[in-house]
Design goal:
Residues 164-227, 323-344 are annotated as: Disordered. Residues 184-227 have a biased composition (Basic and acidic residues). This is tRNA-binding domain-containing protein. GO terms for molecular function: tRNA binding. This protein folds into three domains: 5-141, Glutathione S-transferase Yfyf (Class Pi), Chain A, domain 2 (Up-down Bundle); 163-188 and 233-370, OB fold (Dihydrolipoamide Acetyltransferase, E2P), CATH 2.40.50.140; 195-231. A hairpin with a 2-residue loop joins β5 and β6 (301-303). The longest helix has 18 residues, at 5-22. It is of the alpha+beta class and 372 residues long. Helix content is 37%, strand content 13%.
């Protein structure tokens, strides 16, 4: 390891601490091994003590141990290593495999580069977006104890510019924008029975009230049906967590996301966000989405939902809505004072989305609101 003796010991102490946390071991049991062993030996000893077998991708683990062992301690020299890591992380969330579960390789590399990353200037951090996204993910996914200072990311804050004209449709939640940009091609056949049922109910109502001023009852029924069609309660709005995002294979304006909504499998959703967000920006981000739109293909890629976003007035900035703090994937989102059961599947023939979304907007505090 390209460091002096003191920093070498400190780094290895950090590695031992984080690996022991990862494997649920007491780091004190290995403190005496730190001075006389390299990272590889420390890792092997800790792995044996954990009772776990060597991972199937052990060669990859060893590759990252070699990276950690050769990572320079000098603040200027380390930037080359961080650039290398940034390139490697451009297409994945963690160092090993295609999933989202941190491995011992992530823990080791995080421990080694932490002091270098935290010392970077803001412009330097901005040149390493994948490293910074990964560091933030690891420090929030792994319990690394108090050994590592929290790295605070300066994430861009979206400031709605619609406070003075919140009632204007163009300032609404970009559910509107998303619907405009990514309309689902396939139209559903759902709710034919609902139509017949509504019609039958209307006839019964008219017959029963025939002698009780029918000219007043009919408009009331029409108003009730109209209100029902415009109710935001028809939308099944849920919290989601974007597990993976990538560019649409044939449409530059579209991104494809795999979103966890608390179901057995993730949902694939196509969104018109490529102009405003990168796949890296969306990965591991919590979002709010409508899940009862009928699945359909957008430019030959299946989409099973609609991500809700907010935009500024001229639509130059668009960002996905953030769910309430602590809300878990799959939890429903409702609006205060509005009751009702969501449709199983929205019916495009009734233009429910087109009628409801113009009344979705963010207030002066940036909170999503429905104006009925």
């Amino acid at each position: 390891m390209a460091t002096n003796g003191t920093s070498d010991i400190k780094r290895k102490q950090g590695i031992v601490s984080s690996l022991c946390k990862h494997f649920s071991l007491d780091p004190k049991a290995f403190s005496s091994q730190v001075p006389g062993n390299d990272i590889k030996t420390l890792y092997i000893n800790i792995l044996k003590s954990s009772g776990k077998e060597s991972p199937q991708n052990n060669d990859e683990v060893m590759k990252w141990i070699a990276f950690a062992d050769s990572f320079p301690g000098d603040s200027k020299a380390c930037y080359g290593g961080l650039n290398e890591l940034n390139t490697d992380l451009a297409k994945k969330s963690v160092l090993l495999g295609n999933g989202f579960t941190p491995s011992e390789a992530d823990v080791i590399v995080f421990s080694v580069i932490h002091s270098s990353v935290i010392a970077l200037s803001t412009p330097e951090k901005e040149k390493l977006p994948h490293v910074m996204r990964w560091m933030d993910y690891i420090q929030n996914s792994e319990d690394l104890g108090a050994h590592f200072e929290k790295i605070l990311l300066e994430k861009p804050v979206f400031e709605p510019q619609m406070a003075k004209a919140a009632a204007k449709p163009e300032v609404t939640s970009s559910a509107k924008g998303t619907v405009q940009n990514t309309k689902i091609a396939d139209k559903p056949d759902a709710e034919k029975n609902a139509k017949k049922s509504d019609s039958a109910d209307a006839k019964k109502k008219a017959k029963g009230d025939k002698e009780a001023v029918p000219e007043k009852k009919a408009p009331e029924k029409e108003a009730s049906d109209k209100d029902k069609e415009l109710s935001v309660s028809l939308l099944n709005i849920q919290v989601g967590l974007i597990r993976k995002a990538w560019k649409h294979p044939s449409a530059d304006s579209l991104l494809v996301e795999e979103i966890d909504v608390g179901e057995a499998k993730v949902r694939q959703v196509v969104s018109g966000l490529a102009k405003y967000c990168s796949p890296e920006d969306l990965t591991n981000r919590r979002v709010v989405l409508i899940t009862n739109v009928k699945p359909g293909k957008l430019r030959d890629v299946m989409s099973e939902g609609l991500v809700l976003c907010a935009s500024n007035e001229d639509h130059t900035k668009v960002e996905p809505l953030l769910p309430p703090e602590g809300a878990k994937p799959g939890e429903p989102i409702s609006f205060s004072g509005i009751d009702g059961k969501p449709e199983d599947v929205l019916n495009p023939k009734k233009k429910q989305l087109e009628k409801i979304t113009p009344n979705l907007f963010t207030d002066e505090k940036g909170v999503a609101t429905f104006k009925d």
